Amino acid sequence: METTSRRQALLKAIYQRLEEAYEDTLEDVIELLxxxxxxxxxxxxxxxxxxxxxxxxxxxxxxxxxxxxxxx
Length: 72
Fold this sequence. Notes:
The structure is a single chain. By secondary structure, the chain is mainly alpha-helical. It is 88% helix and 0% strand. It is built from three helices and no strands. The model has no long low-confidence stretch (mean pLDDT 93).
């Protein structure tokens, strides 16, 4: 519930400011949102690829990771 009301308050504040913004500012906002979405899609792709790699090659046991970190 708190997240929803916070989101609504943020959207209201954004909308009020966008009403007063210059056109180039609005274009910048769209560009930033597009960049964020592209980054999110890249992250999702990387996670899927990592999961597939683990299915094929297995993963490194945690004990081995701890040993390797301790030796650095």
